[in-house]
Amino acid sequence: MSYGANRADLWRQVGVYTGRILKGAKAADLPVLQPTKFELVINLKTAKALGLTVPTTLLATADEVIE
Q1: What would the 3-class secondary structure string for the chain be?
Q2: What's the pTM?
Q3: Tens digits of per-residue pLDDT, 13-27?
């Protein structure tokens, strides 16, 4: 199971920063951004191999379930 920042959103933020710098903004003047979108990924195949039971409510809230 993994809970972390959404990679696609992080790359979008990198693109926005790059665009600002290319337009002449100083990197030192740009604010530090923190991730705003997070995702929960559950590897059900590994959980079963370890003999773990994942509650269905947790599976329902997951963004991605690897089977």
Answers
A1: CEEEECHHHHHHHHHHHHHHHHCCCCHHHCCCCCCCCEEEEEEHHHHHHCCCCCCHHHHHHCCEEEC
A2: 0.71
A3: 999 999 999 999 999
